[in-house]
Write a structure and sequence with these properties.
Layout: E1 2-4, E2 7-9, E3 19-23, E4 26-30, H1 38-47, E5 55-59, H2 65-68, H3 71-78, E6 81-85, H4 89-92, H5 102-112, E7 121-123, E8 128-129, E9 132-136, E10 145-149, E11 153-157, E12 161-162, E13 168-169, H6 179-190, E14 196-199, E15 205-206
Parallel strand pairs: 4-5, 5-6, 6-7, 11-14
Antiparallel strand pairs: 1-2, 2-3, 3-4, 8-9, 9-10, 10-11, 12-13, 14-15
Protein backbone atom coordinates (compact mmCIF):
# COMPACT_ATOMS: atom_id res chain seq x y z
CA UNK A 1 0.00 0.00 0.00
CA UNK A 2 1.39 3.39 -0.96
CA UNK A 3 1.56 5.59 2.13
CA UNK A 4 3.67 8.51 0.85
CA UNK A 5 5.48 9.56 -2.30
CA UNK A 6 8.03 6.85 -2.99
CA UNK A 7 7.05 4.83 0.11
CA UNK A 8 4.96 1.64 0.36
CA UNK A 9 3.94 -0.29 3.44
CA UNK A 10 4.43 -3.91 2.40
CA UNK A 11 1.21 -5.91 2.38
CA UNK A 12 1.00 -9.10 4.40
CA UNK A 13 4.02 -8.66 6.64
CA UNK A 14 3.07 -10.20 9.96
CA UNK A 15 3.30 -8.73 13.45
CA UNK A 16 5.03 -5.46 12.51
CA UNK A 17 5.27 -3.06 9.58
CA UNK A 18 7.91 -3.05 6.87
CA UNK A 19 8.31 -0.15 4.46
CA UNK A 20 9.81 -0.02 0.98
CA UNK A 21 11.41 3.28 -0.02
CA UNK A 22 12.49 4.36 -3.49
CA UNK A 23 15.97 5.86 -3.16
CA UNK A 24 18.33 7.36 -5.73
CA UNK A 25 20.42 4.19 -5.96
CA UNK A 26 17.61 1.62 -5.82
CA UNK A 27 15.25 0.40 -3.11
CA UNK A 28 15.62 0.68 0.66
CA UNK A 29 13.70 -1.47 3.14
CA UNK A 30 12.88 -0.34 6.66
CA UNK A 31 12.52 -3.44 8.89
CA UNK A 32 11.61 -6.97 7.81
CA UNK A 33 9.01 -8.42 10.19
CA UNK A 34 9.34 -11.81 11.87
CA UNK A 35 11.06 -14.79 10.22
CA UNK A 36 9.30 -16.06 7.10
CA UNK A 37 8.60 -12.76 5.37
CA UNK A 38 11.51 -12.68 2.90
CA UNK A 39 9.71 -14.18 -0.09
CA UNK A 40 6.60 -12.13 0.66
CA UNK A 41 8.65 -8.93 0.59
CA UNK A 42 10.38 -9.89 -2.66
CA UNK A 43 7.04 -10.77 -4.27
CA UNK A 44 5.74 -7.33 -3.29
CA UNK A 45 8.77 -5.71 -4.94
CA UNK A 46 8.04 -7.62 -8.14
CA UNK A 47 4.37 -6.59 -8.08
CA UNK A 48 5.56 -2.98 -8.17
CA UNK A 49 7.42 -3.76 -11.38
CA UNK A 50 10.83 -3.71 -9.69
CA UNK A 51 13.47 -6.43 -9.40
CA UNK A 52 14.57 -8.02 -6.11
CA UNK A 53 18.19 -7.13 -6.89
CA UNK A 54 17.17 -3.46 -6.79
CA UNK A 55 16.91 -3.82 -3.01
CA UNK A 56 20.22 -2.27 -2.02
CA UNK A 57 19.83 -1.49 1.68
CA UNK A 58 17.89 -2.88 4.65
CA UNK A 59 17.73 -0.48 7.59
CA UNK A 60 16.68 -1.97 10.92
CA UNK A 61 15.18 0.38 13.49
CA UNK A 62 16.29 -1.95 16.33
CA UNK A 63 17.25 -5.58 16.97
CA UNK A 64 13.91 -7.10 18.14
CA UNK A 65 12.88 -10.25 16.28
CA UNK A 66 9.62 -8.80 14.89
CA UNK A 67 11.75 -6.26 12.99
CA UNK A 68 14.88 -8.23 12.06
CA UNK A 69 13.43 -11.73 11.67
CA UNK A 70 13.67 -11.92 7.88
CA UNK A 71 16.85 -9.92 7.36
CA UNK A 72 19.14 -12.95 6.98
CA UNK A 73 16.98 -14.42 4.22
CA UNK A 74 16.66 -11.12 2.40
CA UNK A 75 20.39 -10.49 2.55
CA UNK A 76 21.06 -13.98 1.17
CA UNK A 77 18.53 -13.60 -1.66
CA UNK A 78 19.38 -10.04 -2.72
CA UNK A 79 22.85 -9.17 -1.46
CA UNK A 80 21.43 -6.02 0.15
CA UNK A 81 23.54 -4.25 2.76
CA UNK A 82 22.22 -4.37 6.32
CA UNK A 83 22.33 -1.23 8.45
CA UNK A 84 21.57 -0.86 12.17
CA UNK A 85 22.70 1.46 14.95
CA UNK A 86 26.13 0.62 16.31
CA UNK A 87 24.73 -0.15 19.79
CA UNK A 88 22.32 -2.81 18.48
CA UNK A 89 24.72 -4.30 15.91
CA UNK A 90 26.44 -6.71 18.36
CA UNK A 91 23.09 -8.24 19.40
CA UNK A 92 22.04 -8.65 15.75
CA UNK A 93 25.35 -10.40 15.05
CA UNK A 94 24.98 -12.71 18.06
CA UNK A 95 28.14 -11.38 19.68
CA UNK A 96 26.30 -9.89 22.66
CA UNK A 97 23.28 -11.10 24.60
CA UNK A 98 20.38 -8.65 25.01
CA UNK A 99 20.47 -6.53 28.14
CA UNK A 100 16.80 -7.35 28.74
CA UNK A 101 14.81 -10.48 27.93
CA UNK A 102 17.81 -12.76 27.49
CA UNK A 103 15.97 -15.96 28.38
CA UNK A 104 13.01 -15.16 26.12
CA UNK A 105 15.36 -14.21 23.29
CA UNK A 106 17.21 -17.52 23.60
CA UNK A 107 13.92 -19.44 23.34
CA UNK A 108 12.73 -17.37 20.36
CA UNK A 109 16.05 -17.80 18.57
CA UNK A 110 15.81 -21.58 18.85
CA UNK A 111 12.10 -21.68 17.98
CA UNK A 112 12.42 -19.58 14.82
CA UNK A 113 15.95 -20.70 13.89
CA UNK A 114 16.94 -17.04 13.88
CA UNK A 115 20.29 -16.55 12.21
CA UNK A 116 22.73 -13.86 13.37
CA UNK A 117 23.63 -11.20 10.83
CA UNK A 118 26.69 -8.97 10.85
CA UNK A 119 25.79 -5.41 9.91
CA UNK A 120 27.44 -3.97 6.81
CA UNK A 121 26.76 -0.44 8.06
CA UNK A 122 26.81 0.68 11.69
CA UNK A 123 24.76 3.81 12.05
CA UNK A 124 25.12 6.80 14.36
CA UNK A 125 22.96 9.79 15.16
CA UNK A 126 23.06 12.28 12.29
CA UNK A 127 24.10 9.80 9.59
CA UNK A 128 22.23 9.83 6.28
CA UNK A 129 21.27 6.70 4.38
CA UNK A 130 19.15 6.49 1.25
CA UNK A 131 18.11 10.12 1.63
CA UNK A 132 17.01 9.55 5.26
CA UNK A 133 18.50 11.10 8.38
CA UNK A 134 19.25 8.77 11.28
CA UNK A 135 18.01 10.00 14.67
CA UNK A 136 19.11 7.99 17.71
CA UNK A 137 16.18 7.48 20.10
CA UNK A 138 17.35 5.04 22.80
CA UNK A 139 15.08 3.50 25.39
CA UNK A 140 13.16 0.77 23.61
CA UNK A 141 16.61 -0.69 22.90
CA UNK A 142 20.00 0.91 23.33
CA UNK A 143 20.30 1.48 19.59
CA UNK A 144 16.74 2.32 18.58
CA UNK A 145 16.57 4.80 15.72
CA UNK A 146 14.05 6.69 13.66
CA UNK A 147 14.59 7.75 10.07
CA UNK A 148 13.51 11.21 8.95
CA UNK A 149 13.02 12.30 5.36
CA UNK A 150 13.40 15.95 4.45
CA UNK A 151 9.68 16.25 3.58
CA UNK A 152 8.63 15.35 7.13
CA UNK A 153 8.03 11.61 6.73
CA UNK A 154 9.37 9.78 9.79
CA UNK A 155 9.84 6.02 10.21
CA UNK A 156 9.61 5.51 13.97
CA UNK A 157 10.10 1.77 14.54
CA UNK A 158 8.88 1.02 18.06
CA UNK A 159 10.05 4.30 19.55
CA UNK A 160 6.62 5.82 18.82
CA UNK A 161 3.66 3.70 17.75
CA UNK A 162 0.40 4.05 15.85
CA UNK A 163 -3.03 2.70 16.72
CA UNK A 164 -5.76 1.21 14.51
CA UNK A 165 -7.34 4.62 13.94
CA UNK A 166 -4.36 6.66 12.77
CA UNK A 167 -3.56 8.00 16.21
CA UNK A 168 -0.23 7.99 18.00
CA UNK A 169 0.61 6.07 21.17
CA UNK A 170 3.75 5.83 23.30
CA UNK A 171 6.00 2.76 23.42
CA UNK A 172 5.10 -0.05 25.82
CA UNK A 173 7.24 0.46 28.95
CA UNK A 174 7.19 -3.27 29.65
CA UNK A 175 8.97 -3.95 26.36
CA UNK A 176 11.51 -1.16 26.73
CA UNK A 177 15.05 -1.51 28.00
CA UNK A 178 14.76 1.84 29.81
CA UNK A 179 11.13 3.05 30.07
CA UNK A 180 12.07 6.57 31.21
CA UNK A 181 14.50 6.98 28.35
CA UNK A 182 11.91 5.55 25.94
CA UNK A 183 9.38 8.18 27.05
CA UNK A 184 11.94 10.93 26.58
CA UNK A 185 12.74 9.62 23.09
CA UNK A 186 9.04 9.54 22.21
CA UNK A 187 8.83 13.23 23.07
CA UNK A 188 11.95 13.86 21.01
CA UNK A 189 10.24 12.30 17.99
CA UNK A 190 7.13 14.42 18.49
CA UNK A 191 9.36 17.48 18.58
CA UNK A 192 10.82 16.66 15.16
CA UNK A 193 7.77 18.25 13.55
CA UNK A 194 6.89 15.30 11.32
CA UNK A 195 4.20 15.44 8.64
CA UNK A 196 3.57 11.69 8.55
CA UNK A 197 4.58 9.08 11.11
CA UNK A 198 5.20 5.57 9.77
CA UNK A 199 5.38 3.37 12.89
CA UNK A 200 6.59 -0.17 13.37
CA UNK A 201 3.15 -1.14 14.67
CA UNK A 202 -0.22 0.40 13.89
CA UNK A 203 -1.42 2.58 11.05
CA UNK A 204 0.41 5.58 9.59
CA UNK A 205 -0.43 8.74 11.48
CA UNK A 206 -0.67 12.20 9.97
CA UNK A 207 0.44 15.09 12.15
CA UNK A 208 -2.44 16.91 13.74
CA UNK A 209 -2.22 20.68 14.08
CA UNK A 210 -1.80 21.89 17.61
CA UNK A 211 -4.51 24.27 18.79
CA UNK A 212 -3.44 27.87 18.75
CA UNK A 213 -3.59 30.16 21.76
CA UNK A 214 -7.10 30.97 22.84
CA UNK A 215 -8.22 34.49 22.26
CA UNK A 216 -10.47 36.49 24.54
CA UNK A 217 -12.97 39.08 23.43
CA UNK A 218 -13.38 42.33 25.33
Amino acid sequence: MKVAEGVHRIDGVRISNAYLVSADDGLLLVDTGIPGNAKRILAFIERLGRRPDELRTIVLTHWHIDHVGSVAGLKRLTGAQVAIHELDAPVLAGRERPAKGRRAMAVITRLFHLRPVSADLRLRDGDRIGGLEVVHVPGHTAGSIVLRRDDGVVFSGDALLGDRHGGIRPPDPGLSLDPDQARASAEKIRALGFRLLLPGHGRPAAARPRPGPSSSQS
